[in-house]
Amino acid sequence: MGECPQQTPLFTFGVIADVQYADIDDGYNYSRTRRRYYRSSLQLLRNAQESWSESAVKPAFILQLGDIIDGFNKSRDASERALDTVLREFGSGSGSGSGSGSSPPEVHHVWGNHEFYNFSRSALLGSKLNSAVHPDGSPTGARAGGDIYAYRFSPFPGFTFVVLDAYDVSLLGREESSEQYSNAMNLIRQYNSNEDLNCPPECEGLQQRFTMFNGGFSKEQLDWLHSVLSSADEKREKVTIVSHLPVHPLSTDPICLAWNFDELLAIIRSHSSVVCFMAGHDHDGGYHWDKDTGVHHLTLAGVIETPPDDNAFGTVSVYEDRMELKGNGRIMDQVFGFP
């Protein structure tokens, strides 16, 4: 059979990470080595929305990979205001200027460290950043138990997306009096003896991930993921997992890895259904193809460290045998073949 010159994708979706908007002047990262463009991140989000709304094939949904507003909003009592500002941009995307009057695509929000700098876990569960429920209150898909923010959804037959909660085990978003907080503290203290736990351990290598701005996945969440993937294996579905924190050491700087990345990788490797893992957090971005499993690990470059005259977003077209990422600005074009 001859190849059609222009295949139509089964569906497309948009991806963007680390917007970190705040209505403040430009600043620098924690180690003061990288410029951060807090105000203009909103315009870069607007650029992404305009591109998605004007594309011939409208995205079925948007993946927002976490850190939607910056932690600086908290001390300025501007968390709610900043979040409303950014969510308004997400809501004004598709249909505007297209003449179709269609509603904007659904946004699936991942939670990162900056979400927890601004809000408690219970506040996030009751907010518009909880995309495990539709605006009408109905569930988006099967979700993990308790207050774990992890759920699955299927935008198209044969394809499943799983949103993970990378701060389920963390010092962030947990009450200091809680058992979860003391368990996380015991874990981080095995590796990090600094007074300021946002400073990585002195050692080189993978142990640098044990900082306060990272977290991990509880056994309950890992068991839930295992069951979701077992079901997907049986149905021969293709699964894309998304998380704020990367889980493959070759897809990111070690300082950005999830605490128990190795346990999550072991689960992925024990299933045949996973085709891609997408994350944010590392503002430089990264990519690694795990040839043992055929899984593509994409870490998306962050909007917050993207200059105002550049861009950082992508559109993914999904076909039977591959996904094609069309990047903009700092995001490179890539093809992810399915194993």
Keywords for this structure?
single chain, 339 residues, alpha/beta, Purple Acid Phosphatase, chain A, domain 2, 6-stranded mixed β-sheet, globular
Structure in words:
The protein is of the alpha/beta class. It has one domain: Metallo-dependent phosphatases (Purple Acid Phosphatase, chain A, domain 2), CATH 3.60.21.10. Helix content is 23%, strand content 20%. The chain is built from eight helices and 14 strands. It has helices at 41-54, 72-75, 79-91, 113-118, 121-125, 179-189, 219-234, 261-269; strands spanning 11-16, 27-28, 35-36, 61-64, 106-109, 151-156, 159-163, 238-242, 274-279, 286-290, 295-299, 312-318, 322-329, 334-337. A six-stranded mixed beta sheet has the order 5-4-1-12-13-14. A six-stranded mixed beta sheet has the order 6-7-8-9-11-10, covered by helices on one side. Strands 2-3 form a two-stranded antiparallel sheet. Helix 7 packs parallel to helix 8 (261-269). The two termini are 21 Å apart.
